[in-house]
Structure formats: C-alpha cells, structure tokens
Amino acid sequence: MNPYLVGAFVPLLLSLILCNTKSRKKRGVPVDVGGEPGYAIRNHRFPSAVESFWEGVATIAELFEQSCKRFSNKPLFGTRKLISRETEKSRDGRSFEKLHLGNYEWLSYGEAFHTVCNFACGLVQFGHNKGERLAIFADTRAEWQIALQACFRRNITVVTIYASLGEEALCHSLNETEVTTVICGHKELKKLIDISAQLDTVKRIICLNEEGIINDYSLAKKATSWAVASFSEVQKLGQENPVEADMPLSADIAVIMYTSGSTGLPKGVMMTHGNVLATVSAVMTIVPALGSKDIYLAYLPLAHILELAAESVMIAAGSSIGYGSPLTLTDTANKIKVGTKGDASALGPTLMTAVPAILDRVRDGVRKNVNAKGGLAKRIFDIGYGRRLAAINGSWFGAWGIEKVLWDFLIFGKVRAVLGGHIRFLLSGGAPLSGDTQRFINICLGAPIGQGYGLTETCAGGAFSEYDDTSVGRVGAPLPCSFVKLIDWPEGGYLTTDSPMPRGEIVIGGPNVTPGYFKNEEKTKEVYKVDERGMRWFYTGDIGRFHLDGCLEIIDRKKDIVKLQHGEYVSLGKVEAALIVSPYVDNIMLHADPFHNYTVAIVTPSQQTLQAWAEKEGITVGDFSDLCRKEETVKEVHSSLIKAAKEARIEKFEIPSKIILLPEPWTPESGLVTAALKLKREVIRKKYAEELSKLYE
C-alpha cells in the first residue's frame, strides 16, 4: 500500500475508534433497588451510594474546619473594593447607577476560620439561644458564607431566603420557621422594617457591613423593638467573649431552604448536614483535578442549592471563591461603569456555575455581535465554528492541533475574554439546558459544560455529565451519592418498557435525599417514600429517559403537560425550550387551554434585536412599547417562532397560533420568574389573564 495513503488513513481510523469507544463507554449501570418497580441506574464507578469523601468528616462544619486548617494560607474569600457609585442618565432621561469597582481583596482560609469562630461566639453574646433558628436574607457575598459556617459551629439551623422574595412569601417563611435572628443586607433591612408588625418571632437583626446601612440601622432601632447590631459588632463581641463550639451531628438539620417556588407560597426543604455532605462528596469525584489552583466566580443566589453546593465543593477542594453579581459580571454589565472591569475580567476564574437562562443570553449576545458585523467577520466565525464542531463530533476533518490554536487566536479567544479567559469547566444547572446552547458555549469557551440535574429536595444531587462526555442535551449518569429510577406514568404515555429507551417519572434515592418539607407532613408524604430496604426516595415529577450508556435525559415534566380540546398532549416546557432560540425572544411562556385546540404564547422580546430589525425595515416608533404593539412587529416575531419550531420538529398543534409581545423583561424582582429564572406560570397567567383571554377570541 502507498505509504502516503497509510499516513492519511491512520488518523482517520484512530478518530473512528476513539469516537466509537466514547459512544460505548458505560457511565451508568443497572442496579437492583427496592421500592416501587421501575428501571434504576447507578454510577458505573460506585456500587453503593457515597456519603462522605473524607474519613472522620460527617458534617459541613467539620468539612469547613478541615479545609481551613489544611489550606490555611491559601486565599478563600475575595471581594471587590467599591471605589465609587455614580449615576448616569440615558437618552430618554432615565437614571442608572454605575459602580466603579477595584481589584479583589482576599481573606485566607486561616483568616476566614478565625472570623467564623468569632462570629459564632458573637451570636451567643448577642442573645441567640440554643434551639432557635436564624435566617440569612441577603445577596450572595463573603459574609453570607461566613455567617452560614458560624451558625453551623453553633448547631444553629439556618433558614435561607431569596433576597428577591416578595412580602407575603417573606412573612410566611420567617413566621413558619419561628426565626428569632435575621442577618440581612441594606435593601433587605428596608423590606423587614416595612413588614415588622407582621413578624411574630423576630427579636434580633444583624446588618451586613454596607455603604448606607447606618441610616437604616438607626431607623430599625426607632421603628421596631428589635435588637440591632452590625456584622462587625457581633464579630467583635465574639472575639472578646469566646465560647466553646457546639458542633452538629450528621442527622441535624443544617438548612431549611425556602424555594422561590413556581406555584403558591414557598415550601421549606429541610436539609441535614449529611444530605449536603453527600452531594459535595459526590461532585468531588466527578470534576477532575479540583484543587487550590482553581478560582471560582460566585454570583448566583446562595439561597439556591446549586450555589450553596458549588461553594461547598470549592471550600472542600481548597479553591478560591471570588464574589460578584449578575449586574457586574462582565465589562458591559448593566451596573459596571464604562472603563471598569467586570467581575470575570478582574478575577479570571477557572470555574463557574450558570443557569440555562444566563447561558442562553451569552449565546444570543455572541450571535448578535457576529451578525451585526456581518460580511467577512461573520463568514470567518461560521467557518471556525464549523471546524471546531467537526472536531468535537470526532471528524478527522475538524480543527485539530495548530488549526485549533489559530481559530482560538482569531475568534474564540475574544469570546473567552468576556468571562476572564481562563474558564476550564462550567456547570449548568437549575433547569434543562438546550443542546444548541450547550454546544455553542462549549465551542466558544473551549471548555466542557457539565450539565447537572438535581432539586432542592435532593440537595442538588441527581445526575451530572462527566468531563469527557461530549454529548449534548443530557444530564449525565447518576452522581455517586444517588440512585436514579424511572417509573411508569401511563397517563402521559411514558413507560419503562418503551423502545429504544426506557422512559418514565424520575425518582431519586440516596443519602442526599432530604427529610421533607418543614411543617408540611401532607406534602412530604406525597412526594417522599422510604422503601423496604430503608432507602429514601424523592418523586421529582420530571420525565426522563435513559440512554444506552446509562446517561439520563430530561424530556418532560408532569405539571407542564396539558391536553388540548381534541386530545393532543402539549409539553409546555419542551416547546418553550425550542422557541426561545429565536433571536427575538428574551423569554417566553406557552399557554394551552383544554377548551381550545391550539396554543398561544406570551413573549418578552429582546429589545436590542427587535429595535435593530425595526431600524433595518425603516419602522419609526416612539418607544419600545409602541414597537411591541405594532402588527408587523408581532408578525415578524411570530414568523421566527414558527421557523424555530419547525427546525426543532415541534408538532403543528404545539406551535402557538397567536402571540402577544410584552416590553417589560421578567426578573426575580418582578416576581414572574424564580431566582433560577424559571417561569412562575400561575403568577404570569394571573397577571396577564386579560391579554391571554384576548388571544383566544
């Protein structure tokens, strides 16, 4: 054979072998479990559920102390220095606050442990008694984590509350758990003062050290009977009056986490130290080479289990945590002053977590910039993207070696610079991530995206994509702390005997499954079951299917399925995930009524994209609200939705027949989406009931 042909053939053969090997690799294997009959899978490397990764460590408090002693001189908590706050006005006269932020200033593991111990002692001196519960009601920051760890050293159960929670839900959470002490920030203190007459058990307020807090601090003392102190005052109290730690046991309740809830009042999920530790231990076995060289950018709500678990993993690994916020994340973020670095640029993180809604926006932002440049720049991007995609898919003709370096230099390096340029692994959780977005971000960042699946009720533990799994649209094999089982749901047509893959409701069992809901025995009995072998299971309400390699894919949700007038089933979440890829869509809620044979949709459009379209078409309008009401605008957006639906092979009856455009974005502050940016369907439906009824006329 011609040696040149051999030389060309060998790389192709190796590529095919490698691709075939990856597709055959077993990541999850069947396991015999108790309880309701179904099809169960465990992690391929662990025959039994992992409870603790460290000998002698049974609680999060012990884990924190171990890490602080082991990595004493390493940086742990980083906070940016606030140089100034400035107010800028837009062309339409609206005022916006802009922040000038400096570099990160660090607290080492040793210093953090000293601060935690002092604050723990200070809580005792401030009057917080054994057995009482404490709430943390603040945005994510270093003091939030310090306060949490301090409470754990006193075996205090912490109630976590989203900073964006409305008054009714806030009162419900604090009163139901009979909280006596609240740790809060500047804007949260104002909320507490406004509802002080409705709070039955609150006695003490600890204010985080923030600019402007002193005025509200004084107001709280005058307007209420609460004892009020600053974070630093409590810390000093403890430093001057040390007491012995009161460490918890594994079965003690560490956190009562109030979900922001997509329906009704929030439920408080009780988590033991053992529950959280199981998830942390499992993730430690999945992400490769976690260690003290890693830097993690923290900006998601710590009141969400995804962020709480992620930061716990970072602490366990000896990594550094730099704190930021969604509004200061990048150089072009809403609150960043022009010329000031965003959090990612200033920190240069190697690890991040994100919810799908944020990644969708990153994808849309990159695509909009590329399309706006057009011409040669767009063509080069498309070619580079295609070459990298071919390489990931195992093609010999993809961008390998030197060519990969070239494309990184020409195109993708600029995209990576948006998040600091050093990301090596990114975790997506909180909701299903579309395969399109996952692959796009994966190529542009040049780093794997581990898609995880879990719930507050399972301490974020469930399934997790392994580092070398290049597939998209799946959430991986069960974490080592979990068994994942599918059970039949005949009403929805999902059975474990389905071919080619078993399908059904997802049920999760293992040491990460929580005890239940606080003071809600009825709901706990409904979705939690203990089998004859003592394994605790949580019935998620999500619908999944297992691939041949043991990886899980989320395909539906029981609550999101509506039967139309002629008997067709519509999966609202599935259709929304397909339609949101339209460049005109910022957010969308599909609505299906059993008394009609078609669906409708409420859309919050992308202002930048829609205005660019209007300008191109020569459409002049007074403001964005006027543009959203125009018939030609609605027609253009609707056409893009139909195109996206057809590309995703959505059934005709699932595609919205009519839509309405709303100019105002949906944010957690508006109460229309959760902190993880999931739709609050019932809230949105009630708020826009009149608009929806017109769509059915």
UniProtKB/TrEMBL annotation:
Its EC number is 6.2.1.12. Keywords: ATP-binding, Ligase, Nucleotide-binding, Signal. Pfam families: AMP-binding. Residues 1-28 form the signal peptide. Residues 101-518 form the AMP-dependent synthetase/ligase domain. It is an enzyme of class 6 (ligase). GO terms for cellular component: endoplasmic reticulum; membrane. The keyword ATP-binding applies. The keyword RNA-binding does not apply. It catalyses: (E)-4-coumarate + ATP + CoA = (E)-4-coumaroyl-CoA + AMP + diphosphate; a long-chain fatty acid + ATP + CoA = a long-chain fatty acyl-CoA + AMP + diphosphate. It comes from the Eukaryota. One of its GO terms (biological process) is phenylpropanoid metabolic process. One of its GO terms (molecular function) is 4-coumarate-CoA ligase activity. Belongs to the ATP-dependent AMP-binding enzyme family. This is 4-coumarate--CoA ligase. It comes from Apostasia shenzhenica.
